[in-house]
């Protein structure tokens, strides 16, 4: 049962990623519910499935990123994107080879957390978010100062926010997701399903070929029969 559950979670995650990348919203929502049910059924996330679970949680939250009325956390102040940032941080800890992409996505999520609040006119909440987001580390300071200036001017359409737009964030997440899918395209259920489809395809082709052969044979028999009737008629006529 545990092994089968592993296979199902791998498959659900793969489907969720694929529909996110392809922008199929209805299918994404369907597999979101499946993945959520499977993840909720885990008493503890196994080490080998951590990355998979984290990316599912990330995508589910990114998809709701513009909806400030939707909450994933008990703390109602936490927006979907701020919750997504938590899972992005967990994903970063699982990897070390994508530093540039990690940095780009982290910066985009941080900027859009503030931008989405501003677009909805929640400037007070945006200020509170800014205080939660950034530490006192020097690496965060330049971006924090820029966002503080944007907040002060209360203009959600400044070049900074337009350059690091929500669409750019989605595209970067899609790039990351495509890399994840390439690493996980050999999961068991995908392989088993592919073999089954190929097998059915071969059987269907063989059956089609047999049907064509049988039809040709039947046509030849009918032609012989008709020819015999004509021959007999001619002989009788003579």
TrEMBL record:
Q: Which InterPro entries match?
A: Telomere_rpt-bd_fac_dimer_dom, Telomere_rpt-bd_fac_dimer_sf, TRBD-Containing_Protein
* Xref: Pfam families: TRF
GO CC annotations, alphabetized? nuclear telomere cap complex
GO MF, one example: G-rich strand telomeric DNA binding
Q: Which keywords does this chain's UniProt record carry? A: DNA-binding, Nucleus
Q: Which GO terms describe its biological process?
A: negative regulation of DNA replication; negative regulation of telomeric D-loop disassembly; telomere maintenance via telomerase
Q: Does the keyword Nucleus apply?
A: yes
Give every Telomere repeat-binding factor dimerisation domain span. Answer: 7-201
Q: Does the keyword DNA-binding apply?
A: yes
UniProt name for this protein: TERF1 factor
Native source species: Podargus strigoides
Highest classification ranks of the organism: Eukaryota, Metazoa, Chordata, Craniata, Vertebrata
Q: Which gene encodes it?
A: Terf1
